Amino acid sequence: QAQMVESGGGLVQAGDSLRLSCAASVQTSSLYAMAWFRQAPGKERESVATIFWGTTTNYADSVKGRFTISVDNAANILYLQMNDLKLEDTAVYYCAAQMYPSNEGFDYWGQGTQVTVSS
Question: What does the pLDDT look like over 55-66, one tens digit per residue?
Answer without folding.
Answer: 999 999 999 999
